[in-house]
Amino acid sequence: MTEQTKAGPSMNTCPCEPGLAKAIVHKLGSFGTPPEFGIEYFSVGLESYLEVIEHEYLDGMLKYNLSSFKLITGNYGGGKTHLLYMIRQLAWKHNYATSYVSLSPTECPFDRLELVYKKIVSNITPPAAQSKDLTSPDIGIESLVRHVYEKYRGERDLVSRIKSLESSSYANALKGAFLSLKGDDEEEYDALTQWLKGEDIPREIRLRYRISERINRSTAFRMLRSLVQFINSSGYAGFILLFDEAERGMSISSTRDRRRALDNLRQLVDECGNSRLPGAMFFYAVPDENLLLEGSGGVYEALKQRLRSTFTRVNPMGVKINLEEIGVTPEVFLQRLGEKLLIVFQCAYGIELENDVVQESLKCMIEASIEMQSLDVSYRRIFVIGIIEAFHRIKENHMVIGYSDAQLILRSTVKMLAEKEKEAVEQEEF
Q1: How distant, in Å, are the alpha carbons of 319, 423, 429 from that of 426?
Q2: Are 245 and 382 in a shared domain?
Q3: What is the structure's pLDDT at 1?
Q4: How far apart are CA 294 and CA 327, in angstroms?
Q5: Domain boundary at 322, 339, 370, which?
Q6: How far from the centroid of its chain's Cα atoms is residue 275's Cα?
Q7: What is the extent of the structural domain holding 355?
Q8: Most exposed: 114, 219, 241, 392, by fewest CB within 10 Å?
Q9: Helix or strand or coil: residue 114?
Q10: Within 10 Å of residue 324's Cβ, how many Cβ atoms?
Q11: How far apart are CA 345 and CA 392, in angstroms?
């Protein structure tokens, strides 16, 4: 039996370059987590959400200097990060700056907004900086300021771009950064952008540019609003912020920290109702909305009230995007996903697998994956890792993956994910 198929995609119709396809296969086959680029080649079931986000928000209300907040929920491995990456690509298409922030208990807990701010400015990506080669060094506040300077350096009064910022210290730091670029003083530019990144800088520079504040817990919200205001006045359509509680638990542990984090979240939702965050949209992804809403007291009740409504095509003003209810049955979802991953796999290795073998194997993998829906890991992640292994086996052995073999593959996948999670927890604790 050969790897040539009688039906299926021709190698002349590969949607992406072999190098990118292989990177996608390796990333998905290792842990089931999406790569940062190329996700459009295997995206399934998100079309309705993305269409509404694009037309109602990115190409709609945000361009009128309004702002919005959405909560994304779904099981562990249920596609939250995938959706955030797809939103980011849409945002770049519409000329938005973006920042993707992975929240974690040690480095970036949501109860420490000054640390969240640091991650936001470190990960800012202008739309022109997006790259298909999986490397994008042109990110961060220092690159963004340089982009703006290069874009408007011919203007008579460049600093007029920095107008109506809430924090005068923030405005003064930006003005100083522009002046440093104009004078080719890279050392001073680096110092001023260090302050914008939330770091301490020499006292003489702070005095010279009248930077009287520090970026800390008490000022983090004001500095975030000033950042949004700067981006909005710099020729971008706006700013899209993507917060990802990537692990099963949240980035907060103690009751006190949780209350502070939830109060920060409540304040952020409320800020989206005023004009201080022009052209900004926040997406906050959590594995379980009950992690936010379980509990008693004012902050919990306030959040429940604000996060009650469901986002749909009929109700685009709703807040919650539930990835467990995408309007596609698990069988249809996995069939479409498997077929898209097959195309990527074949592009990666320059082959065409036997169609009959693939389809019978795919059927068995789908049945075995859906059986595991009761587990707390999404059947989608289990399937993605398992089907990549199945394709590799078919590539080598040219034999159908039967139902019992599919079960063995998937059980091994679940065990691997459990060990990975245990290792991650131990690293956070110690």
Answers
A1: 34, 5, 5
A2: no
A3: 39
A4: 27
A5: 322
A6: 25
A7: 11-41+329-429
A8: 392
A9: helix
A10: 11
A11: 9
